[in-house]
Specification:
It is built from 17 helices and 48 strands. The chain has a 22-stranded antiparallel barrel.
Length: 922
C-alpha cells in the first residue's frame, strides 16, 4: 500500500499546481444571507476573530475575508418555517428538484421505499452529496437506481445550520458532488437544558404530527476545557388516507385515467376463456340485462361494491365487469415514527488543540398501507351461482380450458386486509478526531464508522400464495363477498409476517487535512491545504427464504434473487491553494484524485476567481471537472424484473392497423447491472456577482452550467420501442411475434446538460416605528435541462415537460417577509413552482386511445407563523402551513404509484396548523 500511497501523493502534488478551485462556487440561494463584507466590531482585531471552515473549502479563514456563495439556512429560519425534518427543509430550497419524500415513496413495490433524498439541480439524487458536520454518512442501503444519504437519518433537532454549496465540488469532496453539496452542521458547544414540544394538525384530518426534543449539555470549552451535549428528538406522523381528502374526488381519476385503475375487484371479476364466452353468448347469458361482449364479466354489475369498486364501462374491467379505483382505497402519506440521538463531546487538550467525538443514532419506522390483497385464482364454475346452471363442462365450452370447467377469478380480498409493510431505516455514525493548530498548521483528522440498515417487513395483507389459491378453489375463502368464520380463520393463518428484505451498508474511513500559510501576497497570506482519505464501503442485501420461495402473494421473488455482499476500497488525495493576489483579486486552485477499487481513478480539477472592486461588490467565476463513481448497486445488483408504462409495440401495431387496444401494453422488462461501468464525468462553470449597497440590502445573481458525460443509465423503454431499427435487438419476442420482455442494461452512455440562473434578493433590519422588517427572495430559473440517451442521439428536454421519470420546472422560488418588535415576531412565506407540460403519453388499452393532453398548473403554497418570547427562557410559536389549503394540481403522470397528481411536486396534506413551545435552562 505504501507504493500506491506514494503514487497518489505524487499525482496530487502535480494536480495542486493546476488552475483549479473550490471556493468560487455558484449561488447564494433561498434563505441565504450573502456576505460580501460581514463587518466585525471595530474594537475586534482580525487576530482575535476565530477562523472558520466553510463548505467548499479546506482552508480555514476569517469569515469576513471572503464571500463564498454558499446558501446558509439558520436554525432560526428552520423554526420560522415550521419544518421538523431534513426532507421538509430541502423541499423549500429552490435548487432542489424532484427529491424523494415520504409521500413520493408510497408504492406497492419494494424498490428503495422509505428513502428520503435531496436532488440539487434536478440532475439526480446520486449526484448530490450529503454531509454531516463536513463528513460523509453511509448511503441508504437498499439496492436501487438512486444512491445517497437517507435524510431520515439527519437529526433535524440538532441542526445549527445548513450550508448548501450549489456547484460541483468533486475537487474537494470526490464522487457524488456533481450537483452540489449539502452540509448539515449540528450544535457543537451547548450548555444547559432545552425542552421543545411541537404539534400539528391538518384541517381535514390525517397526517398530524407530534414531536418532542430534549437537548442537554455541560461544560464550557473555554473555561472548563470540555463540553459534552446530547440531543434526543422523537417524532410521530399519522397516516393520511385518500378518504380524508376531498381533492382526490375532485381529480375525477376514474373518468380521466381509467387505464390506470385495476381489474381486480371485490366481488371478483370472472375472466372467461374465448370458448367459455362464446358458449355463454349462445346460451343467452346476460349481464345487467344485456348479452355479454367481453371475456371479463361480473354478475354484480352495475352494483359492484362502492366506493372503490366501480361500474366503469370505459375502465379496465370493461362494460361487463367491475373496475377498482385504488386511489379510493390507499394512503397518500404514511404513518411514521422517527427517533434521533446526537451526542458530541469535546476535550480541550491545550490552547490550540481539541479531541472530539460524535455519536449519531437514528431510527425511522414507516408503515406503508396499500389496497387489499389481489390475486388471480381458479374456481370451478359450479361454485358460482350465476354460472352453475350452464354446462361449462361441455366440449364446446371447454375447448381451450386448462382444467375442464374451471374459470379464472381476478379478486381483491377485503377479508385479507390491506397490504401493510413496515420499513425501518436505522443509522449509526461514530466519529472520533483531532482538530486544531500547531506551529502554524491548521489540521483536522478523523475516524468515521457509519452504518445504515434497512428492514422491509411484510406485516399484514400479504398471504401465502399456495394456500390462498387452494382456499379459494376449495370454497373455504369466498371471492364474491365476506368469508365465513372458517374462511377468515384460514386467511388469518396464512398472513405473512416476515422481514422479507434486509440490507446493510457500512462505511469506514479515515481522513485528514492540513493547511498552512505559504507566503504573503499583496492581498494577504497565501495558504495551501492538502488532505486525503481512505474509505472502505460494503453493502449486503439479504432477501428472506420465504421471499425467494416466491410464495408471497403480491410480493414476488426477485428474478435471479439471491443474497449479495459487495465491498470496495476508495483512496483519495487532494489539495487547495488560496492566492490573494491583491486586496481585490483572489484565486482558489484545487484538485483531487480518487481511485476506486475495480472501477479505476478520476482526477477533479477546479479553478475559481473572485474580484472585489469595492467592499459592497463582488464578482466571481469558477470552472472545474467532477465525476460520479458507479454505485455498487449499479455494478452488482441482481437482475430486476419490472414493467414499462403502457406503450405501443410498433412492430405489432403495424399488423393491427395501429389499434392501441391490441398492440399497447405494460411490457415486462429485465434490468441488468454492469460490473464494467466506468465513472460519469462532468464539467461545470459559473459566473456571478454579489452586490451589497447597504447593510440592509443585497443581491446575488449567478449563472451556472453543468454537462455530464458517460451517464450511467439504461436506454429508456420508450426510446427502445420508439426506434426498433436501432434497438430492436433488445426486444425479445415470443413465437407469435409479441413481446416477451425488453432487455435493459446499465451502461455508460449519453450526456446531460443543465444551466440556469440563481437569484437572491435580501432586505433585513429595516427599522420603523412599527417594528423591524425584512424580506428575502431566492429563486432558480432554469435555462436548459436535457438528456441524450446515447451518444449520437438527439437531446430530449425535460425542462417544463415531464419526460420518462420526472420534470424540471422552469422557475422555483421561496419568498419570505419577516417582522419583529420586541418579544413578538411574525413571518409570511411563499414557495412557488412553475407549471409544466404533463406526461401525456399513457395509453388506455381498453379504448385504444392516448390520454388527453394536460398542462399541470403552477403550484403555490403560503405559510405564516408568529412567535412570542415570553421570557428569556420561554418561547411560544404558532403557525399555518398551506394557508389557503391549496390542493395538488391534476396530473396524468403514470410514473408513480400515486395517480392524479405528482407526489414529487406537491404535498397532499393540505392546510396544517402547528404550535411549539421551547423552554431553555441556561
Amino acid at each position: 500500500m505504501g507504493e500506491v500511497d506514494s503514487m497518489r501523493v505524487t499525482t496530487m502534488a502535480q494536480s495542486v499546481r493546476l488552475a483549479l478551485s473550490v471556493g468560487a462556487v455558484t449561488g447564494l440561494l433561498a434563505l441565504a444571507q450573502p456576505a460580501v463584507a460581514q463587518d466585525a466590531p471595530a474594537a475586534t482585531s482580525a487576530a482575535t476573530i476565530p477562523k472558520v471552515e466553510i463548505t467548499g473549502s479546506a482552508i480555514r479563514r476569517i469569515e469576513s475575508e471572503t464571500a463564498l456563495p454558499v446558501q446558509v439556512i439558520t436554525r432560526e429560519e428552520i423554526e420560522k418555517a415550521g419544518v421538523t425534518t431534513a426532507s421538509e427543509l430541502m423541499a423549500r430550497v429552490s435548487a432542489n428538484v424532484g427529491g424523494l419524500t415520504d409521500g413520493a415513496s408510497i408504492t406497492d413495490g419494494h424498490d428503495q421505499r422509505g428513502f428520503n433524498s435531496a436532488n440539487l439541480r434536478g440532475i439526480g439524487t446520486s449526484s448530490t452529496l450529503v454531509l454531516l458536520n463536513g463528513r460523509r454518512m453511509a448511503n441508504f442501503a437498499s439496492p436501487g437506481d438512486d444512491t445517497g444519504v437517507d435524510l431520515n437519518n439527519i437529526p433535524a433537532a440538532a441542526i445549527q445550520r445548513v450550508e448548501v454549496l450549489l456547484d460541483g465540488a468533486s475537487a474537494l469532496y470526490g464522487t457524488d458532488a456533481i450537483g452540489g453539496v449539502i452540509n448539515f452542521i449540528t450544535r457543537k458547544d451547548f450548555q444547559g437544558v432545552e425542552l421543545n414540544a411541537y404539534g400539528s394538525k391538518t384541517k381535514e384530518g390525517g397526517a398530524g404530527k407530534r414531536t418532542a426534543t430534549l437537548t442537554a449539555g455541560t461544560g464550557d470549552v473555554a473555561k472548563d476545557g470540555y463540553n459534552v451535549f446530547a440531543v434526543v428528538d422523537l417524532q410521530r406522523t399519522d397516516a393520511l388516507s385518500t378518504s380524508q381528502r376531498k381533492f382526490i374526488d375532485n381529480l375525477h381519476i376514474p373518468e380521466r385515467l381509467p387505464h390506470l385503475l385495476s381489474g381486480y375487484v371485490s366481488p371478483a371479476n370472472i375472466r372467461l376463456t374465448g370458448a367459455q364466452r362464446d358458449y355463454l353468448q349462445e346460451q343467452g347469458f346476460t349481464i345487467n340485462g344485456k348479452p355479454i361482449t367481453s371475456r371479463t364479466i361480473n354478475p354484480s354489475v352495475p352494483g359492484c361494491s362502492a366506493p372503490a369498486n366501480l361500474y366503469l364501462p370505459t375502465g379496465v374491467g370493461g362494460s361487463d365487469a367491475c373496475t377498482y379505483n385504488y386511489m379510493g382505497d390507499t394512503e397518500l402519506y404514511p404513518k411514521s415514527d422517527k427517533a434521533n440521538l446526537l451526542s458530541r463531546g469535546v476535550l480541550q487538550l491545550n490552547a490550540n488543540n481539541q479531541l472530539f467525538a460524535e455519536v449519531a443514532l437514528s431510527r425511522s419506522k414507516t408503515s406503508y398501507v396499500a389496497s387489499s390483497a389481489r390475486v388471480q385464482a381458479k374456481i370451478n364454475y359450479k361454485k358460482i351461482p350465476a354460472l352453475a346452471k350452464y354446462n361449462l363442462d361441455s366440449d364446446e365450452a371447454s375447448a381451450d380450458d386448462d382444467v375442464v370447467g374451471d374459470v379464472t377469478l381476478r379478486v381483491r380480498l377485503n377479508d385479507g386486509g390491506r397490504r401493510t409493510s413496515e420499513l425501518t431505516s436505522e443509522s449509526q455514525r461514530y466519529v472520533v478526531g483531532l482538530t486544531g493548530s500547531a506551529n502554524g498548521f491548521d489540521y483536522d483528522v478523523g475516524l468515521n464508522h457509519s452504518v445504515n440498515t434497512i428492514k422491509d417487513k411484510d406485516t399484514h395483507g400479504y398471504l401465502l400464495y399456495d394456500k390462498l389459491v387452494k382456499g379459494i378453489y376449495d370454497g373455504v375463502i369466498n371471492p364474491f363477498g365476506p368469508s365465513d368464520a372458517a374462511g377468515r380463520a384460514l386467511l388469518d393463518s396464512i398472513q405473512v409476517n416476515d422481514d422479507v428484505r434486509h440490507a446493510r451498508g457500512v462505511m469506514d474511513s479515515i481522513d485528514f487535512k492540513v493547511s498552512h500559510a505559504v507566503g504573503t501576497l499583496a492581498g494577504g497570506e497565501a495558504a495551501l491545504a492538502v488532505g486525503g482519505e481512505v474509505r472502505h464501503e460494503r453493502t449486503d442485501f439479504t432477501p428472506s427464504a420465504l421471499l425467494l420461495s416466491d410464495n408471497i402473494n403480491n410480493d414476488g421473488a426477485p428474478d435471479g434473487g439471491r443474497p449479495t455482499s459487495d465491498k470496495r476500497t476508495v483512496q483519495a488525495v487532494y489539495g487547495e491553494l488560496l492566492l490573494p493576489f491583491t486586496k481585490q483579486w483572489e484565486a482558489q486552485l484545487s484538485a483531487r484524485y480518487d481511485h476506486y477499487q475495480v472501477v479505476g481513478g478520476a482526477a477533479s480539477p477546479k479553478v475559481g476567481i473572485t474580484y472585489t472592486p469595492v467592499k459592497t461588490m463582488l464578482f466571481r467565476a469558477s470552472a472545474g471537472r467532477g465525476f460520479r463513481a458507479p454505485s455498487m448497486s449499479d455494478l452488482y445488483r441482481p437482475t430486476q424484473v419490472s414493467s414499462t408504462a403502457t406503450l405501443p409495440d410498433p412492430a405489432y401495431c403495424a399488423t393491427v392497423d395501429n389499434n392501441y387496444a391490441d398492440c399497447a401494453d405494460a411490457w415486462e422488462t429485465h434490468r441488468y447491472s454492469n460490473a464494467n461501468l466506468k465513472p460519469e464525468h462532468s464539467r461545470q462553470y459559473s459566473v456571478g456577482m454579489v452586490i451589497e449597497p447597504t447593510k440592509q440590502a443585497s443581491m446575488t445573481l449567478d449563472y451556472w452550467n453543468i454537462k455530464r458525460t458517460d451517464l450511467i443509465s439504461e436506454i429508456g423503454d420508450d426510446i427502445i420501442l420508439g426506434n426498433l431499427a436501432k434497438y430492436g435487438n433488445l426486444v425479445h419476442r415470443l413465437d407469435n411475434g409479441q413481446i416477451d420482455y425488453i432487455e435493459m442494461h446499465k451502461e455508460n452512455r449519453g450526456a446531460q446538460l443543465a444551466s440556469g440562473l440563481d437569484l437572491v434578493l435580501d432586505f433585513r433590519g429595516v427599522n420603523t416605528w412599527a417594528g423591524s422588517f425584512g424580506g428575502h427572495l431566492s429563486g432558480t430559473y432554469v435555462l436548459n435541462s436535457k438528456i441524450q440517451n446515447v451518444v449520437g442521439d438527439p437531446y430530449v428536454s425535460n425542462l417544463g415537460r415531464f419526460v420518462t421519470d420526472g420534470v424540471v420546472p422552469r422557475w422555483r422560488h421561496t419568498v419570505t417577509f419577516d417582522w419583529d418588535r420586541g418579544p413578538y415576531s411574525a413571518s409570511l412565506s411563499n414557495t412557488w413552482s412553475a407549471g409544466y407540460e404533463d406526461q401525456n403519453s399513457a395509453i388506455d388499452t381498453t379504448g385504444g386511445t392516448v390520454v388527453a393532453p394536460n398542462r399541470v398548473k403552477a403550484y403555490s403554497l403560503w405559510d405564516m407563523s408568529g412567535a412570542w418570547q415570553v421570557s428569556k427562557a420561554f418561547k411560544l410559536r404558532a403557525g399555518v402551513q398551506n394557508l389557503f389549503n391549496t390542493a395538488p394540481p391534476y396530473s396524468n403522470q403514470a410514473k408513480f404509484f400515486i395517480s392524479g397528481y405528482d407526489p414529487t411536486y406537491t404535498d397532499p396534506r393540505g392546510r396544517r396548523f402547528y404550535a411549539s413551545a421551547n423552554y431553555a435552562f441556561k
